Amino acid sequence: WPIFERSCPDGLRRYFYKYISIITGYFNPYIDISFSDVSEVWFKSSDAYLTVETYLSNKAPKSAKRLKAELGKDSSKVVLSLDVNQRVMDEFRGVKIWWTSNKDVNTSRFSGYPNETTMSYMLTFHKRYRDLIVESYLEHVMKEGKEIGVRNRQRKLYTNCPNDKLPWYMNRSLWSSIFFEHPANFERIGLDPKRKQEIVDDLLTFSNSKNYYEKIGKPWKRGYLLYGPPGTGKSTMIAAIANLLNYDVYDLELTAVKDNTELRKLMIETTAKSIIVIEDVDCSLDLTGQRKKKTKKSSDDDDENEIPMKGAKEEEKSNKVTLSGLLNVIDGLWSACGGERLIIFTTNYMEKLDPALIRKGRMDKHIELSYCSFEAFKVLAKNYLDLENHPLFDTIQRLIGETKIIPADVAENLMPKSSSDDADKCLSKLIQALEQAKEEAAKKKDEEEKLKEEEATKKKNAGELKGLNVKEVAQKKENDEVKVKEEDQAAKWKDEDVKEEEEDQAAKGKDEDVKVE
Ligand SMILES: Nc1ncnc2c1ncn2[C@@H]1O[C@H](COP(=O)(O)OP(=O)(O)OP(=O)(O)O)[C@@H](O)[C@H]1O
Ligand SMILES: [Mg+2]
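Above: the input record for the complex with adenosine-5'-triphosphate. Below: its predicted structure, written as tokens.
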């Protein structure tokens, strides 16, 4: 063979190889399909190759003799795959299939990289099963490979702040990401267990309803609106949802989006099995039509308290995400891209939101997270202090019924601050906080009542003045004037009387003097 290789001219050798493979192919009953890692995108392995690799990572450890161990892409787990020139058998509907991993050395003089290696997986099966393999088995491999990949991946938290430092030839995304490692879960959320179960059921039903959504002709997505006062667990619940469903989180900062087109691009770049979050949607943008009109008309008198920020005008100019842009992205044609996505809005003031934004179909489920109930407290006590019952629980139940306290405050009081803090101490601290909250609430109520009373009396006085008719006022004025005149006259007369008396007295004195003389 070496003599043949050396002595045979190049062209003749190529012909020989070509016809040899045709002749052997004629007698060989097996068919090969190759999945190479070379892709059209520079520096990126082909998706089909990676999916096959993930699929085989589940099969190979069971039967192959030589395996390769690597840290999986975006994963902290060790992934085992077939080593070079190893073969593994798979079975599909009773048919045997073989996978072999190959390493090819590309010796082409024109490739630019001498001895460049390419990896590939070769799928071998009998030609009798061609239809089954091409039509069903390959689909099964791709589907299962992707599912395993999603299961094994390290989930990510994305934000819409692009990484400009990447060189131009790398794939620059509008999102940048870090690994998502929030430890929240539903067991630890302080909420009435019944409501919690209802939310969990809703979420699990959604994630298992691919076929149902297809059947009813709706994009596979669901909107959640979480509303309530600050510190009631809205952000925590988003993290718990992501952990429950194994989804990525896209935290969309609307104020950083330039316009509707960029918003659409951002949506297109999101993947399936993800949650798109817009926190504090009421203050993200001036989204309601009415509010826009109002600011235009009465910008001088209404916004007196607002201190204009530096560069706010420029920002206003460049920031053109509109309500309709957002509505379209959530529930328009664009919303169907990706599939299996949750869109979650959070707000402290639900009444400020435009009804179109929160109607069913856009925000399908509205979840109110409110002040801490006794049931919620029990969950927190179990979580923070490992307590299911305690003599102080009765007092706490009474106080929680009488006053409002947010779960964040309860959690803070229940958390031991030093090694000497035990359950008794933490619960006493909570009782103190509850009593203080109660006092403050009572004080506030008193003040409010006082203010109300003052306002009421002010209004009453104003009403009384208004109630007197003009005639009465004029009559009163006339009477007052007459009275003043009379008084003046009386004073005048009095003065004159006094004067006359004085003059008489003087004359009398004079007469007496004359008489004496
Ligand atoms: N229901 C709850 N169960 C358990 N912990 C809670 C709950 N509510 C709040 N907390 C705790 O309080 C802190 C604040 O909660 P979180 O950030 O989820 O509140 P939020 O509702 O998102 O507030 P904001 O409206 O200000 O964003 C968290 O550290 C969390 O651990
Ligand atoms: Mg929050």
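Notes for the reader.
DSSP finds 19 helices and 13 strands in the chain.
Residues 234-235, 279, 346 surround magnesium ion (ligand 2) (CB under 6 Å).
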